[in-house]
């Protein structure tokens, strides 16, 4: 049995999800005529108390569209130096939006209100105009760390005072919400736009949704077309998402509890120096006396797949296709390394 913990994007649709996909009524979504896509966009917007949604092929696209909406020539985005929008989206902030970036530091991938305030450029001929702050929840590179609403509020106030837009890369927002117990509406009220991935913990094959107000989503639809993301009978994919929103949110807690167990197993391992606090479904282990490449090979020899995460770390992600039997087997196999 292969135990694949490289990512929560590796899951396959469940039989029930596939049934829902086969049964979906569809139409041409570029014409706005796919009833299932429209239903998904409306369902997620309603959940978050936001006006509208836009279904896109990837979370990179929803983030990049949001950045395009909130920036322009000679503008600047504030985000954490380890954020996905900066590190893992192919340099898109520059190539798609021609915007500059101010990178902040902060423990577990989170930025502080004071640092945001200090990073806003002065209204000065020399400086790029700061127009956008982008946050990530959960924070992938922070080890699946969580922002609480109380941490967001002062950042939102600063944005309001300085006329900045606030975007959330919520690729794993539901992982955060099932842990904190906070409501989606509370989050919807804080942000101009939110990107939500359906292909991560929720277990869909494809897709992300961008949420925002009607005017922004209307513009976003046009940007999506220019990015090549207008899909036709995309309702088959949207049906998977509707199914996941109805059936796969609460179960994220299981992924988190398995991740905590997995973290404890690794903590006791002689090749592991430290495990970052496990808050959700991501476990980051700092290695001791072994190079990540060598560690990955050792794990691979035991049919465990994972990825390198920085110069002395490896990352394990739990998901829908990782069950208790695999967890027990994982524990056994790592003792044989
Ligand atoms: C996965 C991910 C995205 C989007 O990735 P896609 O593969 O383009 O869907 C965005 N932000 C974070 C934090 C992610 O983990």
From TrEMBL:
Q: Where are the transmembrane segments?
A: none
Q: Which domain of life is it from?
A: Bacteria
Q: Which Pfam families match?
A: Beta_elim_lyase
Domain Aromatic amino acid beta-eliminating lyase/threonine aldolase residue range list: 4-286
* Family matches, as CDD domains: TA_like (cd06502)
Entries under SUPFAM superfamilies matching the protein = PLP-dependent transferases
| Entries under InterPro entries matching the protein | ArAA_b-elim_lyase/Thr_aldolase, Low_specificity_L-TA-like, PyrdxlP-dep_Trfase, PyrdxlP-dep_Trfase_major, PyrdxlP-dep_Trfase_small
Q: Which residues form a coiled coil?
A: none
- Cofactor(s) needed: pyridoxal 5'-phosphate
Instruction: Please verify whether the record's keywords include Phosphoprotein.
Output: no
Q: Which UniProt keywords apply?
A: Pyridoxal phosphate
Is rRNA processing tagged as a keyword? no
Member of which family? Belongs to the threonine aldolase family.
Question: PANTHER family of this UniProt entry?
Answer: L-THREONINE ALDOLASE, L-THREONINE ALDOLASE-RELATED
Q: What is the protein's name according to its record?
A: Threonine aldolase family protein
Source organism per UniProt: Belliella marina
């Amino acid at each position: 049995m292969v135990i694949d913990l490289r990512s929560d994007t590796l899951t396959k649709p469940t039989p029930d999800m596939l049934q829902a996909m086969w049964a979906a009524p569809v139409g041409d979504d570029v014409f706005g005529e796919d009833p299932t896509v429209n239903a998904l966009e409306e369902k997620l917007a309603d959940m978050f108390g936001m006006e509208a949604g836009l279904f896109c092929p990837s979370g990179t696209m929803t983030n990049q569209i949001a950045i395009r909406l909130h920036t322009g020539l000679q503008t600047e985005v504030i985000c954490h130096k380890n954020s996905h929008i900066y590190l893992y989206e192919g340099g898109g902030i520059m190539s798609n939006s021609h915007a500059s970036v101010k990178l902040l530091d902060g423990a577990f991938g989170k930025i502080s209100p004071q640092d945001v305030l200090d990073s806003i450029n002065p209204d000065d001929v020399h400086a790029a105009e700061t127009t956008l702050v982008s946050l990530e929840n959960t924070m992938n590179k922070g080890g699946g760390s969580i922002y609480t609403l109380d941490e967001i509020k002062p950042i939102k106030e600063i944005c309001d005072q300085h006329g900045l837009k606030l975007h959330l890369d919520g690729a794993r927002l539901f992982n955060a919400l099932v842990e904190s117990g906070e409501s989606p509406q509370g989050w919807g009220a804080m942000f101009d736009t939110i990107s939500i991935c359906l292909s991560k913990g929720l277990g869909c094959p494809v897709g992300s949704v961008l949420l925002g107000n009607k005017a922004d989503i209307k513009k976003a639809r046009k940007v999506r077309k220019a990015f090549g993301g207008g899909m036709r009978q995309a309702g088959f994919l949207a049906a998977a998402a509707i199914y996941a929103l109805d059936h796969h949110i609460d179960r994220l807690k299981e992924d988190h509890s398995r991740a905590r167990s997995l973290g404890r197993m690794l903590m006791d391992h002689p090749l592991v120096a430290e495990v970052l606090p496990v808050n959700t479904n991501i476990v980051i282990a700092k290695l001791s006396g072994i190079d990540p490449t060598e560690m990955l090979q050792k794990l691979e020899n035991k049919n465990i797949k994972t990825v390198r995460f920085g110069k002395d770390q490896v990352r394990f992600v739990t998901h829908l296709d990782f069950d208790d039997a695999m967890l027990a087997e994982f524990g056994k196999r790592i003792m044989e390394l």
